[in-house]
Amino acid sequence: MKKYRTSIILFLVFEVIAIWLWQATGNLFFLLNFSYIGICIGIGGILFAKGWKYAREFTQFGVGSYMLVFLGLICHENMQIEGFWYYLLCGFWGAGTLHYAIAKIFGPLLFGRGWCGFACWTAMVLDLLPYKQPKSPRKAWGFVRYIMFALSLAIVLLLFWLGKADAYTMFLLFVAGNIFYYAVGIALAILLKDNRAFCKYICPITVFLKPMSRYSLLRIKCDEEKCINCGKCLKVCPMNVEMNNNSRSRKNATECILCQKCTKVCPTKALKC
Ligand code: SF4
Ligand code: SF4
Ligand code: SF4
Questions:
Q1: Whose CA is nearest to atom 4 of ligand 3?
Q2: What is the pTM of this model?
Q3: Average pLDDT over residues 226-253
Q4: Dist. CA 12 → ligand 2 center (Å)
């Protein structure tokens, strides 16, 4: 059972949230929504522990497509950062704000950037591109995320100022925002030969994710006694994390998406989650 422990704990965390929100609000949606996400994460984690090759993709598509297609396109919830600002400024504590609070602001204290590795609908598509291992070193372009973060807030404030901030406009913004993210993400991935270039330089959500995941309980650890510096973990990491360098352990967690590609290739089992 030990190898399934993390999956079971994560499932239970989501189930507690589901039941608590259902009881607190009387809204059955919260029970179904968070139970579904918890089940996807739990099953994905168990399949991963069993060694199934596509376990991560199972969870990524299960959660990512549910949020993009069902919550976003069918239910018209703007789950992007503009939606978060909109609901926050309206004082509305709904699915969008809860999603940010759990997956991207407070949840990373427990599961780091697990959202980025196992659930994000933008990365779900970017991960299908052929550049799974970056072909070049990381660039110092991280400042762009702060510009995007400020722009996302500015767009919503402008809509309020123009009197156009309503549910329909936010839905249109959700569709336009996703088309923009996919277009920029795919173009950057091809240009830099790096599937996760968008995550490294552009994504505004990392402004929340990075500082919180610095203190994540769930993280990859390197046993330096076992490490033989073969460099295999560095080659497979989609996020260019120096996971074998313990001196930057806190910083490693801010970039690591917990995909565990490094733990799979480590010949001495020096890396563990
Ligand atoms: S960095 Fe942004 S785009 Fe990339 S996986 Fe995380 S939330 Fe998604
Ligand atoms: S350090 Fe390992 S788990 Fe983290 S992103 Fe890189 S390969 Fe994935
Ligand atoms: S793959 Fe394992 S042994 Fe090789 S450098 Fe990474 S941590 Fe060290």
A1: 230
A2: 0.93
A3: 92
A4: 24
